[in-house]
Amino acid sequence: MDKSTFEERKVVINGSMHDSMKHDSAHKHVTGTADYIDDIPEPAGLLHGALGLSDRAHAEIAAIDLSAVRAYPGVVWVFTGADVPGVNDTSSNGMHDEPLLAETKVEFHGQPIFAVIAETRDAARRAARLAKIDYRDLPHWSDIDGALANGSPLVYEPMTLKRGEPETEMANAKHRIKAQMRIGGQEHFYLESHIAMAIPGEDDEVAVWSSTQHPSEIQHIVGHVLNIPSNAVTVNVRRMGGGFGGKETQGNQFAALAALAAKKLGRAVKFRPDRDEDMAATGKRHDFLLDYEIGFDDDGRIHAVDATYAARCGFSSDLSGPVTDRALFHADSSYFYPHVHLVSKPLKTHTVSNTAFRGFGGPQGMVGGERFIEEIAYALGKDPLEIRRANFYGQPGSGRTLTPYHQEVTDNIINRIVDELEETADYQARRNAIIEFNRSSRFIRKGIALTPVKFGISFTMTAFNQAGALVHIYQDGSIHLNHGGTEMGQGLYTKVAQVLADSFQVDIDRVKITATTTGKVPNTSATAASSGSDLNGMAAYDAARQIKERLVAFAVEKWGVGAGEVQFLPNHVRVGDVEIPFPDFVKQAYFARVQLSAAGFYKTPKIHWDRKAGRGTPFYYFSYGAACSEVSVDTLTGEYLIDRTDILHDVGRSLNPAIDIGQVEGAFVQGMGWLTTEELWWDAKGQLRTHAPSTYKIPLASDRPKIFNVRLAEWSENTEATIGRSKAVGEPPFMLSISVLEALSMAVASVADYRVCPRLDAPATPERVLMAVERLKGM
């Protein structure tokens, strides 16, 4: 792409790229008029589905009696895995290890065994509880320790990253530390739970409305389960009430169940689990047990790292392979490891299969990398920021640019980001003041930390880095936009519409944003890996380019001018010395039989990855950022407040600064919840007990930092040819929240005069903080 395409213009349109614009549905969100699947007018004869869930963590199904379920008033049909006409499997990776409905064995508490279809949702749910199932219990383990103790199999082939000679060089390090860290999981807790509605069509056709980030996968799975081709399945997604990765694969089951019942009964069917069922039956962020050894010198410079990342993956593979891979990809955080050996261990547990969550393993890897820095800082009695600087990746030619997976870091701006934030947040003066405060404060202790972010952008599965878009211009000059990306509140639709408005130089209200559907753009990738704008924006740009080339050729022929004399100006087209309103120009092109529609396509260049060798260039570029957080801890209770957070984040040349700042703010708060209050807990029977708002604590508005300063690095511009030279913003800012965990750690460390690394596990709940305080008091 020619960079000049995106140069500033003296006359601008309403809705150009790089403008701050409101989300296209913002006014609908706040007024309640945005339509989600449960708001769609119900088709005549709509039936409702409910799940029959297991109450064992691991058991054989000895006998099942569904007679009382079938006899319940309003029940139309009850079905099991034996009724599946195609393949009883919803796995997204071809490993066939995730049944739609369990038939002979259950492998987690809450696994669906049967489904009930009834005239009302209430009847379906009440009937589902009447089943009589006899089990033969089998040994079960629900956590990483249990999996390791029982020699649990792996759900996916582990990955190893190695560079240098860590085996021998670790012994040569001046200092060595060997320890362990637990990193908790996280529930997605989207406002809109999983939901799907299916309407049967003629022959083998079925239309599905699904709250999913991956319509093409829903299409594939429904066809797989019903034994029909993908061309018979149309999946529609206008918007989701949150996704965060949880709707990349986890919607498969509900869509397949709804479609199966709809085709069987010839009536529309809707599945909408309540919050408890949703949390019990769908996957979460992986929790990790990190065993590590680090070697370093007197200056705090890392010499060698050896680490194993064991993960609770659940009963099936789902996305655990690539999630644990990405944890290893980000185990370096922002730091160069001269000698490194990293191993993943994706363990099978008798819990719901864990899945994608914002950051996709990256946050777990990165928080481990920051623990390495923290260990070194407390061992040497230094400011952690000093240790961070000593270990940052260098510039090309420094000999400190090679990642553990052998990709060169060529776009490094982390030093500038950190230097600027250190100054604007007044880090040094505040840190000195906090140390002084802690010397005289008996019960309240403060902490401050400035942590960096370096996050790789692209799907690590190379084939997923492609996208399509369909653009029509109608005779009146209005534009119809469709692409494979899905809208989950992140503003993707608005950004891609801005790309089109900018390309044709028309006001954005001329661009109609339409629902994502497999009937218009086929074979799409999930809206994930922070790639939605990168991929779909470029696909839309490509479609616009094709149409513009035809329009320019038309103008050259009709008016006898050179191609350089045809210019797209705000809401006009200049041909030679004549300016024609855009709608009039388009209408003339139509009567000249110019094709005013195009299918655009884009595939990310330069990337490749060899998983077995642990080498390649899995990422197109890196996004950077830094956060400085200050906390106050009550050492009598372990309770704490986030007093202030300052953020400087890199999004390249922002496509929409207003939306991007909102993404940074939201990601930080969500990450803060993961590291502080959100704790998943299974009982001895393998039942998830944190299954509702009463027991699972997401951050409230009152939990946000009391002072919250967020800025974008306006000087940044992507060195790669992304759309508008922008950078991804979905996942990278999530890791800014690590600054809160590190600040809490400093506050706790003050109890022992900063001589000992507190080794706070995540989430650092008040209970864990209090236990750490008591432990350090005795040192």
TrEMBL record:
All copies of domain Aldehyde oxidase/xanthine dehydrogenase a/b hammerhead, residue ranges: 31-139
UniProt keyword list: 2Fe-2S, Iron, Iron-sulfur, Metal-binding, Molybdenum, Oxidoreductase
Span of the signal peptide: none
Pfam families assigned to the protein according to its UniProt record, in alphabetical order: Ald_Xan_dh_C (PF01315), MoCoBD_1 (PF02738), MoCoBD_2 (PF20256)
Name recorded for this polypeptide: Xanthine dehydrogenase, molybdenum binding subunit apoprotein
Protein's organism: Rhizobium lusitanum
Entry's Gene Ontology molecular function annotations: 2 iron, 2 sulfur cluster binding; iron ion binding; molybdenum ion binding; oxidoreductase activity
Gene3D superfamilies in UniProt: Aldehyde oxidase/xanthine dehydrogenase, a/b hammerhead, Aldehyde oxidase/xanthine dehydrogenase, molybdopterin binding domain
Protein family according to the UniProt entry: Belongs to the xanthine dehydrogenase family.
Stored SMART domains: Ald_Xan_dh_C
Cofactor(s) the protein needs: Mo-molybdopterin cytosine dinucleotide; [2Fe-2S] cluster; FAD; Mo-molybdopterin
Domain of life assignment: Bacteria
Matching PANTHER family: ALDEHYDE OXIDASE 1-RELATED, XANTHINE DEHYDROGENASE
